[in-house]
Write a sequence for this structure.
């Protein structure tokens, strides 16, 4: 069984409505959900969504404070111990929940995860991984924003974390790894990517070498590692291109009578395709390398995406993600270089 | 008049066929074209494409050597003085041509441009700019791969170059500039992007601040500056997403009889949209900051894209790009920091 999934009731563009809707959807399927946030607000939202008694699998854990978006709030997060993020992660630390999901301030979740849960031995910088819904199957890109700057050995650690996640949680057999770079030759890129290429090549992982931006979408590797700056830009560029392309398709399909008729006939097939390529199908991004199961969802998630995030977290708990990661990165090449400095920049 | 445009007859995936076709198309419109490469090969290709006498605006300049793709060839480029890239740039240096266009080895074109043409005063690192065909109008992203690593003052120089290019060649009135970053707040990103944000904010340019990957496609700025590593990843990610999206649309439009009919009716409207979003409409990427007009085209360009590249170069010459850039960057904040180190990594 998947234990209890704690979810931040106060984080995200459409909080608390989208969160409560998603929590209800997941709880009705039998997943035990702890909804963390202002009790009065969350109860009111529950009644609006469903005047009947909520399922017994859903309970509210009160948190009187909610951390806003932005860097400033992230910096304050450590001292705001009544916030929904603090209390949610505290539940995981105490073993009262087995995973925490938030759509809120990424920097705050990252910083508090480090403080309250700590890191897996052998991992200096936990990374945020985003699952890209490529039609041929999921591709995990990490880091997508937790660490704006990394060293080559961090990239090698990201590779280990990513491979373990794809194998255990996403069910990919023997996942391959690529290093995001600006050319396929091992000598391409910056001194850091050249050094990282050597480290990962010697890691024993199934390394396919450097991968260019376009090759992510050709599924050149199951796991693509990058510094958090580049990974974040890739993620947001992808969202931007997908959004504008579908928006232009809609415009084209309304431009003439003939196009309107065509669009109407094509719509069911396009909708299936759009769903297949929708990043919301995987719900949330795992924060890999912290000593606990933590997922950060897209701020724009709707209720259905929130439910997917909770489901993904439940699968991760079922598959013993925390233990598997600890085992997978047990013999890092870089453990001698342990460093205490970490930062959240996303 | 636009002077003579020299084009590398030997560079690109479909060279020389695509190059000769494009050169013919442009020359027939009255643009004077110097086709640089192996005379026998180019003449044979000309006869295949058009058995009649070629237009008087087209001439062949013989070059017995052709530089292959790859880092190794780029490193050798300086010593291979019979190559089509060397001889083409030599024509510009001597004033026998006013611009050079190549679809070949980016690293070689970059290195030889520095050697043969030099840099504009005030510019330490020339940058490769890519025009993104956003439906609301062109957006220039630079650098997209000439410099894998840059300092903050280089980013400020890119901003000046980009603004001048968009204003003079693309006809954008008072172009705005954004800094590619992983958040909108000025404190986001790496120490280098934070410093660059300050420099550009103080530059007197119309600076809109940090721009995230998705905002490129919302046209948040006319010019988006980035280090060459991130810019290259953005360019290739965009190509990857566009390719996979259209490939999936084609699949969806063949999935059922109903979808097939819809696709047939929608096709003309979608084709118009695809053309509007096709990077080939602008033909080639300007190498901004070298003391001469140089464009680097996409290796996969077809004849029509090659003709567009030549047309764009001719417009740049007409609008006196070289002189305008020299004037625009005449008072750089960073001229005290002149450095001789340059490198080509793309």
């Amino acid at each position: 069984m998947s234990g209890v999934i704690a979810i931040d009731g106060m984080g995200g563009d459409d909080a608390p409505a989208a969160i409560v809707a998603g929590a209800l959807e997941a709880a009705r399927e039998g997943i035990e959900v702890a909804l963390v946030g202002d009790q009065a607000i969350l109860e009111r939202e529950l009644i609006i969504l469903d005047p009947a008694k909520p399922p017994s699998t859903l309970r509210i854990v009160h948190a009187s404070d909610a951390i806003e978006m932005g860097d400033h709030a992230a910096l304050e997060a450590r001292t705001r111990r009544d916030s929904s993020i603090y209390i949610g992660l505290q539940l995981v630390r105490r073993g009262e929940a087995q995973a925490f999901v938030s759509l809120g301030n990424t920097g705050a979740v990252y910083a508090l995860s480090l403080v309250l849960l700590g890191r897996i031995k052998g991992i200096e910088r936990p990374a945020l991984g985003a699952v890209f819904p490529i039609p041929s199957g999921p591709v995990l890109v990490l880091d997508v924003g937790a660490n704006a700057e990394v060293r080559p050995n961090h990239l090698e650690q990201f590779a280990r974390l990513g491979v373990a996640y794809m194998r255990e949680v996403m069910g990919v057999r023997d996942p391959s790894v690529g290093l995001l770079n600006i050319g396929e030759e091992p000598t391409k890129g910056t001194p850091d990517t050249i050094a990282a290429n050597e480290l990962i090549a010697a890691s024993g992982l199934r390394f396919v070498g450097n991968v260019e931006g376009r090759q992510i979408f050709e599924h050149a590797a199951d796991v693509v590692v990058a510094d958090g700056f580049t990974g974040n830009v890739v993620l947001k560029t992808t969202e931007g291109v997908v959004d504008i392309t579908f928006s232009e398709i809609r415009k084209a399909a309304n431009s003439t009578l003939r196009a309107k008729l065509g669009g109407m006939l094509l719509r069911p097939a396009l909708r299936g395709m759009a769903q297949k390529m929708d990043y919301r199908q995987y719900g949330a991004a795992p924060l890999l390398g912290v000593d606990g199961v933590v997922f950060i969802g897209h701020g724009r998630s709707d209720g259905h995406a929130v439910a997917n995030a909770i489901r993904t977290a439940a699968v991760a708990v079922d598959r013993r993600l925390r233990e598997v990661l600890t085992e997978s990165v047990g013999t890092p090449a870089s453990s001698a270089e342990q460093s205490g400095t970490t930062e959240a920049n996303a």
About this structure: The longest strand of chain B covers residues 127-134.
